[in-house]
Amino acid sequence: MAVREDLPDLIAELNAQWHRLAVGNGIIGEDGVFLIDVAGHWTGCAPRRWTRVRLTGQWDLAGVLGARPGQPEFVTLATDGSTLIGVTTEEDEVWFTLLDHLAERQEAAAQVAARETPREREAAWAALLQGPGPSTGLREMWAHGLALNQATPDDLRARLLGLSHFLLWRHLPTAVVEAAMVHPEWKLRQLLAEAQPNITAEQWARLILGEQESRHRWILTMFAADRRAELTDAAYEQLATDPSARVREEAARLPGLPVRILTALAVDVDPSVRASACRRAWPHLDTPARRALLGDPYGKVRIEALLQYHQEHPMPRSVFDTAELTDHAVGTGRLERGLAEHLAHHGNPAQRCSLAGNPHLDPDLVILLAQDSDENVRSVVAIRSDLTEGQRADIPVDFDPRGHHYPLDWVMALHQDPGAMRRLAASTHPLVRRSVARARRLPPDVVERLARDEDRVVQLFLAESCDDAPADMLLRVWQWWTGSLSTPDRPHGHPNFPRRDLLRYADDPNPRMRQLALGDPELTAELVERFSRDSDEEVRHRAATDLRLTPASAVRLRRPTRTNACAARLRGTPDCPRGC
């Protein structure tokens, strides 16, 4: 059924027509509840995201669910999945498409498709490619799918360059990286430098030095420095003498830069280059070169030189008050006792936070800051490496377990010390225990303690990082963790994860546990069929990859039981008749 857009009071008419169809065909249940998808424009036959709703006294679907009032785009479904109404705007009309008996339609289509002969299958693929070509959006989705598919051959991956940005984030073979390096699109070469994990030192050199525009060389050198990439000696030489000061400034940050080049950049004609090279070059500079940087006419260079100088010589308050130093000097440099006392008593909260992390701070000032009125200051003190665990436990802090926290470097440095790991695993501070859990190997008693930790993130990190993580804990983490980790496929891919006797979870109420049953070597074809009809989408998806699944069930999975996401746009086809 179609309604012309030039009708007077169009929105009211559209709402009335939808309500008539919804009530007459059982979309709205006895309790007034129905399902609606308002995810936006349709880009393919992918499962929809349904929301349970009920109409209020002042409801209005056609006025709000679309690009503009009177141009609605939405799908409604009965809660039992039996009937669907799609509403879509085409040119100067709004179409209402009704599909009833969905389960019967899809079961019949599945049975027909399962009996498809090779010739019919070939004809179906040929028909797909006849007539108007696929839309830009559909072609983009195809490219993304091929880029993410691990089975895609290398020669096809090279042809996907420029078609899918997902491609360059995956570990690519050398031949595809080489093709990307000479691709004519600058944005693609830029993304290659930003994202591709498989770039050798020689490829980095050719990628950067092959750019004619200095701005491009600057950006690629910046990515190389950010990613701590290694380059060739010849590339270091050439970048250190690049005509662009911005390129030389970023080159000074490259981790593999030889000392002789680093010290040469510390006396570069451009002050931004000298400032960039100062910190790493300082230990290798002679006294005259250091004095030159301390007396540099440019303030940024002098400040960098002062920060390095006062790593060895305590900074007096007179220098701190006049040198326009940042809080970085308070947190890392050596301070004269008078300056440290002044900042501990009279510094602003930001300065006290920086001071609280200063490794050179006297113990009595550490104790003073542990009692600071500012929560942030106390939090910094609480993760210092020179505290006893008793002192750490006495500091009142409110740790947010949901926040993003990096592992503590000083704990990571002790991972090979069993005694330290044993002591720190009993810490009252969750971040200390989380950092212990990042160790690759741990003593058995430490593993046992951390596997029972009240902080679930400790268990998660143990599952991700520690090869000694126990099977029962890995199973617990699997039940609630559905995200991705830096170590691929953990906890499920952990060597200690249970692999046998998983069929006992076939009827578990938690769908995550039912997924495990699909990996049991004793799994039967009958169970695969049952799992293909599971209420959980991920369980059905895993069942779809099992070779024992019958053709009919495979088709049924391709056409979700609850909805065909293309229904409102497939008017005039056997699956979706034009009229209502």
What does this structure look like?
It is a single chain. The chain is mainly α and 580 residues long. 48% of the residues lie in helices and 5% in strands. It contains 32 helices and six strands. It has a six-stranded antiparallel beta sheet, covered by helices on one side. α9 packs parallel to α11, α11 (245-251) packs parallel to α13 (271-281) and α13 runs parallel beside α15 (299-309). The model is unreliable at 41-45 and 560-580 (pLDDT under 50).
| Overall average residue pLDDT | 89
Distance between the termini: 6 Å
Strand runs, count: 6
Radius of gyration: 32 Å
Beta-strand fraction estimate: 5-15%
Oligomeric state as shown = single chain
**Given the C-alpha coordinates, what overall shape results?**
globular
The poorly predicted ranges are 41-45, 560-580
Number of helices: 32
The secondary-structure class comes to mainly alpha
Strand order of the largest sheet: 1-6-5-4-2-3
The main pleated sheet reads as:
6 strands, antiparallel
Helix content: 40-55%
